[in-house]
Amino acid sequence: MKVAVFSTEPYDRQFLTAANAAAGAPHELVYFDVRLELKTAVLAAGFPAVCVFVNDEVNAETLDVLASQGTRLIALRCTGYNNVDLAAADALGIKIVRVVVYSPYSVAEHAVGLIQMLNRKLYRAYSRVRDDNFSLNGLLGFDLHGKTVGVVGTGKIGIIFAQIMQGFGCRLLGYDPYPSPKFEALDGARYVDLPELLSQSDIISLHCPLTPENDHLINATTVEQMKNGVMLINTSRGKLIDTKAAIHGIKSGKIGYLGIDVYEEEANLFFRDLSDTVIQDDTFQLLQSFPNVVITAHQAFFTREALNDITTTTIASISDFEQGNPLKDEVKPSEKAAV
Ligand code: NAD
Q1: In this structure, what CATH number is given to the domain that contains residue 13?
Q2: pLDDT for 195-204, tens place per residue?
Q3: pTM of the entire structure?
Q4: Together in a domain, 79 and 143
Q5: Residue 84's beta-bridge partner residues?
Q6: Which domain holds residue 37?
Q7: Best of 53, 55, 79 to mutate for ligand 1, by most ligand atoms within 8 A of CB?
Q8: Domain total for the chain?
Q9: How far from the centroid of its chain's Cα atoms is residue 1's Cα?
Q10: Among 24, 126, 203, 274, which residue's Cβ finds the most Cβ atoms within 10 Å?
């Protein structure tokens, strides 16, 4: 099947080409650097399948153009589908598939990386030593052992994250509307309500999806409920945190450390080299200026194992669609509550 693949970087092409080859090269993959949006949809003319990533704009207008050009399948190379108008796709007869499961270790381990980066100030230590500055002033950290870690969302990634933090000797508090026996089975772990998790945790890590209900879950009110000097980690979705409330919390000292892999306005920034550009997002630039903030650009998923899983599943889903098989990872229109 002919597939127009948008938002591709060299690593996407490498892994997709390899996954297609491993399956016997059933598909003709045509790679585009640009992201899919209304003005680039014309590139997909004559392609029955289109493959996109997290920041492509699969809205009603774009879908209209794709449908009129013959597209019948959109394969997301990611788990989230907040960028897709599912009702419009359904009305146009376009099927949507995503990658429900890929290495949860990739994201969980990155969250732990952010914690130790912030705690032991590795970002400062690295630059200092390269500058022959061997002073330890300003690098004081804390033992993770004995600290309380709040896990918001104890699904596939949250559970792995909790297991790793248990290995450090942390106490675990969980909050999830759908409690998991796997979390409760961890030594000393217990579920609490969100206010208790916020007020008791030394470290809070977000591992829930973004839904209409939890948009800005972390806001001025919930920041106030946290311990003074708390460490807040977000590797899930940018809109879970009201960035302005986080900045206020950092300035007041309520938030002692902030580590984020996602940002609410990341679509205008991430996955591109803007190093020669004057960034117009003042909120992001202010956030970057704080010494106790570490930002990575949506790279938590970015391991060999995860890319292998993502591309293998994507190729298999396109093959299933072509052969008329049931689509295991189809996003049904009724799932539109999750953004
Ligand atoms: P999952 O579906 O296995 O688990 C999510 C858990 O969150 C579920 O147990 C669900 O009940 C719970 N939940 C839902 N709403 C909640 C709320 N308001 N408060 C607390 N818990 C809530 O998903 P997963 O595979 O563990 O992924 C978690 C999130 O990680 C994804 O939704 C995605 O946003 C993010 N993610 C980020 C990256 C990255 O590269 N940064 C990569 C993959 C996934």
Answers
A1: 3.40.50.720
A2: 999 999 999 9
A3: 0.93
A4: no
A5: 58
A6: 2-102+303-323
A7: 79
A8: 2
A9: 29
A10: 203
